[in-house]
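Hi W.,

Here's what went into the run:
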Amino acid sequence: MPRALPFLALTLGDPAGLGPWVAAAAARHPGVRRRARPVLVGDAVFLRQRLFRTALFHPLKKIEDYSATPGVVNVLNVPAPLGSLVLGRPQAAGGAAAVSALRAAASLAARRQVAAVVTAPVSKESLKMAGSPHPGHTELLAALTGARRVEMLMAAGPLRGLLLTRHLPLKDVSRRLSAKEIVAGVRLTDAFLRKKTAKPPRWVLCGLNPHAGDNGLLGHEEKRVVRPAAEALRRAGVRLEGPLPADNAWARHAAGDFDAVACLYHDQGMIPLKTLYPKAVVNVTVGLPWVRTSPGHGTAYDLAKDNYLRADPSATVAACLLALDLAEGK
Amino acid sequence: MPRALPFLALTLGDPAGLGPWVAAAAARHPGVRRRARPVLVGDAVFLRQRLFRTALFHPLKKIEDYSATPGVVNVLNVPAPLGSLVLGRPQAAGGAAAVSALRAAASLAARRQVAAVVTAPVSKESLKMAGSPHPGHTELLAALTGARRVEMLMAAGPLRGLLLTRHLPLKDVSRRLSAKEIVAGVRLTDAFLRKKTAKPPRWVLCGLNPHAGDNGLLGHEEKRVVRPAAEALRRAGVRLEGPLPADNAWARHAAGDFDAVACLYHDQGMIPLKTLYPKAVVNVTVGLPWVRTSPGHGTAYDLAKDNYLRADPSATVAACLLALDLAEGK
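Here's what came out:
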């Protein structure tokens, strides 16, 4: 008898957005099913009402009741009060449903019942409306697992971008940077990447300013913060170049000179990743006791109401495949 | 008798950097010579000493003395005190030579003796050391020509990125943004692009913050400045979407949805352009009475001393070809 495929949990995210659709599409994807037994985690009644045209949903009370029947999509039922949910906009009910599903999935992962968790998108607004003290999935997962530190690593094809600050207004990035935080973030992620590679990964650290500050003419953060962080990282044995101008760092990463780019702010990483791989950006949480990935896009409320079948689940499929790679130590 | 090819001026930029090499290489490039009579503008003695292995330099006192002999590179001689120049670092002599060459080229362009000017890179540091009150070529050209407003449009392949702020520390971008400046910059560039296209160009305007501010959760500039600017532009007849998250805007520009991206800060435009076209980014100055382009890279002091022959003049060749397109109204 062949070894059973691992279970893979996929939360539905905010049900008012594209989450249920992309999660269900990924759970039906042959490439995913070849490697795992995918289980959606969320409200099964809502799923059946919303997506009955796309699959046969099989609700489970416990994961062992998984049905391997072709065409069937298994759902670990996490009931949520979604009777008056309005598609296509943030609201408390959507945020609350996303949190419940995430808790259920985290509990499966903690008990090693699933190999990894893939989370469909939630919006910061709906989380806030639901009263969550955590601005996003990443912070919520850190709190749920008691992780001391988590990092957001964005992956697309062979590219890797670590976001050393995350969801901050751009004007606040400069004062939030510190050499200590840069060092801690890169070291944690370096250890994470080393688990998968024979050689230490080759990093490049971006500067903050145009031309990485042009020797102080265009800003002082490079001299005061970024360069000292780079030097401390090199002393600690991290194989790292920089700080380099961000455009140069990314061009050289795309050309294969580096394995990962350490980015000082959200768009410094997201712009090149999305431009090169518009449909395949995956968000990986580094620092959790188990593997979690998600598609690197938002709820896409604008598509959720009428056009969800035109939306592309590729990033969620990519998130599943990368999660399985990571769970297998690849 | 066939119509004579137009003259094209190429300044040497900072002679301590890669400028002389990339300019001379572009002036010898068959694709450039097929369409123009390229003339280097700078110190002919320095060029001969430095690059005698790469070409036969023919010094001109006036442009009419151009030699069409194959293999010969013509140089409009602008003597500069470069006897003690040290290759590979910024210094006053290098900045001063770049300014003299630019003045000479601007004078040729003003008298319509050249179809366009392509400038090799200068560093902000050497300009400052030379006592220039202007931080870069673009500002210097605005002063030389009396242009009321100039814009920096970056081009690479089919991509166009307008940089609405330029060489500013990142932390200062937020307070330097204004709806009035965004509107003026996009309108000037829109008029420039319309000269070349039958249909009005399709613009997208980027937001400043992650997720374009996520409805105010991640910054307020979108609501206060960027959205009002977008609405004013649409009222003025500019075909423009946005503000969109910058990663989304660039992904859709790369996919062909837009003709140009209006970027709020330097790296918002430079990162995707350099990542997609590492060797072909061209800087176009919008708002001058004549055409000026330059390669979208710096002096590369690190390569200038010993490794200049390994450097790639592709961006300067691209700058020449785009300058000729623009001069011909293409």
